[in-house]
Amino acid sequence: MKWIKKGLIYNVSNLSDWAHSHAHKGVNVSSVVKYGNYFHMYYIGWNPGITVPTRNAIGLAISKDGMAFEQLYEGPILDRNKEEPYYTGAVFVMPPTTTYPQWRMWYTSGTRWEIIDGKPEICYHIKYAESENEIDWRRGNISCIIPSHKYEVVARPWAIQEDGVYKMWYSKRDMRNFRTNPNNQYRAGYAESTDGISWIRLDERVGIMPSENGWDSEAIAYQVVYIFAGKKYLLYNGNDLGRSGFGHAIEGEE
Hints:
The protein is mainly β. The chain has one domain: Tachylectin-2, Chain A (5 Propeller), CATH 2.115.10. The chain contains no helices and 15 strands. The chain has a 4-stranded antiparallel β-sheet with strand order 1-2-3-4, with no helix packed on it. A hairpin with an 8-residue loop joins strand 5 and strand 6. It is globular. The two termini are 22 Å apart.
């Protein structure tokens, strides 16, 4: 297989850009939506802290061809606020449909910092927001996927709507020793909802676990699900927060 490089699609270069001051940590693409004549890219900007490692926020860039993106604003479109003061991470955005005319967003929101083994670790879970214009979001501090215990974190939502049911895949792990203990690294989670707001966790039905050995033997993380020709496909990262690579799985196939 041969891949042909097409170049940089988004560059953090403007000194006044809110992401520029932390470009050494980079930006992460979180959700790309094709709507109308444009591709809409939601990305995470890494904002280093002093007493805590980071205080991320979400930016928006658009493109006509899906190759060259332009940032819409010098500031983020989703950041910390008075009710959510800690951290704003990976999002998934669903554009308006004939049955639901609002933009919908599921996003990762920090709920506290916890000192573990002498270091601050962020606790977060998945919340919900809506918008009429994909720029100004009504949040309401609405929790969707809540951790099952004090030290569980839940992040990186990815949702589809199928047969009238919202289905979400997400990543979950333990805050304690997750960098060194494979049992505490990310695992895939799964939930369903009839309205996209109130969710039932069904992690036992997620259908994918770490392999016995190899690049994904310790973790399954950051799932992306898409449907092509009537089949579901899943992309995911493996061990060590994705450092080992990413894989491809097909529903119902060994």
